[in-house]
Amino acid sequence: MGLSMLDSRVKNIVIVGGGTAGWMVASALSKVLSREYNIRLIESDEISTVGVGEATIPQIKLFNQVLQLDEDDFVKKTQGTFKLGIEFVDWTRLGHSYIHGFGSIGQDLGLIQFHHYWLKMRQAGAATDIGDYSLNTAAAPRGKFMRSANIENSPLSNIAYAYHFDAGLYARYLRNYSEERGVRRTEGKIVSTELRAADGFIESVTMESGEKIAGELFIDCSGFRGLLIEQALKTGYDDWSHWLPANRAVAVPCARVMDPTPYTRSTARSAGWQWRIPLQHRTGNGYVFSSEYISEDEATATILKNLDGERLAEPRTLKFVTGKRKKFWNKNCVAIGLASGFMEPLESTSIHLIQSSIARLISFFPDKSFNQVNIDKFNQQSDFEFERIRDFLILHYRATERDDTPFWNYVRTMQIPVELQEKIDIFKGSGRFFRESDEMFGATSWVQVMLGQGIQPQGYHPMVDLLTQDELNEFVGSIKSVLNKCVDAMPTHAEFIAQNCAATAVAAV
Asked: Which of 76, 77, 83, 324 is catalytic?
């Protein structure tokens, strides 16, 4: 007789590694599963997490809603600020900048996207920068921010935003949440992983203390090391360094010297780029670079020379290889976070990839049979998501006019994936962009980055010509003036935080 539904359930779940990934997994599973499930998280205080100032994209709000977190409380406890988009400085050419904002651009008319109307006006020399026609990209440089307001037919009724927060405090916040819901934390280091002889599944891990911890489902959140997925299961890794050659990041926090900006900044440097993430109590900074084109000492000197305020800690260097595991789910082990792969934080996708992996794990949550068809589908969906985000990141490097350093000469002229080349060619020809199934970044993102990085379409959608020139002037012009009035009415980011979610004290991590 087969297993009954009740006793075929996978009830013993072991999460290896804490940090952002481990505690996001623990909090989500402890929320959606009942207390009958045993969730155990193993982490060592001796192993430092990558925790830096962390930037996110708007999908994180969905994750927080599933957990039923109070937004103001969450922002306070993580020294958080709000994010309307990312400013890219010196990417297209030195002295140039643009903003990739969340939300929509202008207003679509019928089935035709707004940017096609803008393209016709721009080609006639009658439209200003595309950033003037989106609420986020108009508000961000003016330091304005608010949540959506209940105003009919107003751009202020639908404001897309994400957060910046202290990753260490976020992990601590989610740890408290998880432990309140029954997750057991075990402190210590794992010294060995035992596999079942019959099928090679993970049976247990052994701690330094000698304790053996058995489980049915293991989730590897052990970071770049991939303690289970790679060291124990030898899953293999797809290396994407030829497209994304950065392989180091030197990170250093500095003192806050001005009101936090409601956007992340990415500044292109000679061999990579520098991030700037404003928190309530400090600013997170880092230089993502390729060690082939600059030494670690030079990269460290560059970042220290380009800080807003006094540095608050010694610079730390992280080493990585851009790419992904050949399988995200192998046997009874699912890798989430840095254990599953790494893409540089150019578009703040790290936490999103943790979040989408968790959502996918919940969709495909196994029973004891560990149905291979489901596992294959999970891996196929994960591969697709990683590859399409990879292509979006490559776009930032490939579409540049910079020829001032060997690094930029390499990325500007490198061969790129066929799917990315096709997207660029279609946009260049007619301003069109087609989203592939449910890839992460949609038209708003691709259009802003392609235009921002100097890809100028030769044409626009022919149905734009159905409007007379006067109607076109009125349509495009009115959007810009409405947005200006909306931005005028918004409070500053600093005022909004002070009124709603100012952190009470600086918590040391």
From this structure: 83
